Structure formats: C-alpha cells, structure tokens
Amino acid sequence: MAKQTHARVAALLGLALAASAAALSAARAETVDVTVDRAKVIKVPAGAATIVIGNPIIAEVLLLKDSGSAVVTGKGYGTTNIITLDATGRQIDDSVVHVTPAPGLLVVQRGMERQSYSCRPVCMPTVQLGDQPTYFNDASSEITKHASLASGADAGGTQSAH
Fold first, then answer.
1. What is the radius of gyration, based on Cα positions, of the chain?
2. Could you report how far apart the first and last alpha carbons of the chain are, in Å?
3. Do 70 and 32 share a domain, yes or no?
4. 70 closest CA partner among 82, 81, 55
5. Rounded to an integer, what distance in angstroms lies between the CA atom of residue 134 and that of residue 24?
6. Is 1 domain-assigned?
7. How far apart are CA 32 and CA 133, in angstroms?
8. Rounded to whole angstroms, how far apart are CA atoms 77 and 59?
C-alpha cells in the first residue's frame, strides 16, 4: 500500500514539475514590439535554422544566417507569432509579435473617411493602413514622385544625365 502511495506522489510531482517547466517556458517567450513599416533586429535562440511567421500580413521575418539574429518588419497592425525551428525541424522557440502604429501618428476621421499625418515634429501627410483610398493613392503618388526626383529621375521616370 505504501509503494502505491509513493508511486502516486512521485507521479503527481512529475506532473507538477512538467507543468511548472511548461509555464516557465511560456513565461520566457519573448514579446517583440515593432511599428508598421519599421524593422527591428532580434536575437534568436542558438541552433535556429528556420523561422516561421504566423501571419505574414502582420509581420515579416528574415533569419540572418550564422549571426544569431533575425529582422522583423511590421507590415500590418495586429498580433502574430514567430516560431523558431532547429535543423531537425524541432521547435525551439515561439515568440509573440505585436505590430502597432508609429508614434506621432495623427489620424483624422471624417465619417468613414480617414487621413493620416506624421507629426514628428510637424504634421505632414503620410499613408497608413486604413486611410481613405483617394487620400492614400494621392499621398503615396506624391511620395513616389518626391523619391523619384530625389534619386535623380525626372517626373517621366527617366534618369537625368549628370
């Protein structure tokens, strides 16, 4: 009878230890906070061979081979996860990724129409997910034209002679 009691106690202790280890592992899972359209370098566990992003609409991840790092880029608002696998395909990590709007973002809502402005330090038009399509297209067209001019291409898209 005493052997059965000791065996039950040992089994319960084993289950409790396993549950504690799982809880500690979950508590250690890193949370990565990144803003839309920004990249962040993160450390990955030793032995990482493959990284999988839960929802590629929310974030993108690129494993930097042999560096112990990866780059996470915010693509859309929300929460997803990054699963890290070793060379045998065994999961070695699972981290949460939160993608949020950039700080200094001002959103103007007029009924169903929305416009975004970057206000660091002065408010200027910017494009963000959820903006009214006409505003989004007009602002992004202006941004593209500006970038083209800054890189030496004229408005027609041809490269200027130097």
1. 24
2. 95
3. yes
4. 82
5. 49
6. no
7. 30
8. 9
How many structural domains does the chain have? 2
Residue 6 lies in a domain: no
> What is the SS3 assignment for 124?
strand
The domain spanning residue 86 has which CATH number? Answer: 2.60.40.1080
Same domain, 131 and 88: no
In angstroms, the CA 105 to CA 120 distance is 8
- Confirm if 43 and 68 have CB atoms less than 8 A apart: yes
> What letter would DSSP give residue 46?
T
Between CA 61 and CA 152 the distance in angstroms is: 32
Q: Which domain holds residue 126?
A: 105-150
Does residue 72 share a domain with residue 114? no
Enter the tokens of residue 148: 């083209």
Chain segment 43-72, per-residue pLDDT in tens: 999 999 999 999 999 999 999 988 999 999
pLDDT of 65-113, one tens digit each?
889 999 999 999 999 999 999 999 999 999 999 999 888 889 999 999 9
Q: What is the spatial distance between Cα 79 and Cα 31, in angstroms, rounded to a whole number?
A: 10
Lookup: tokens for 27: 């508590």
pTM of the model: 0.66
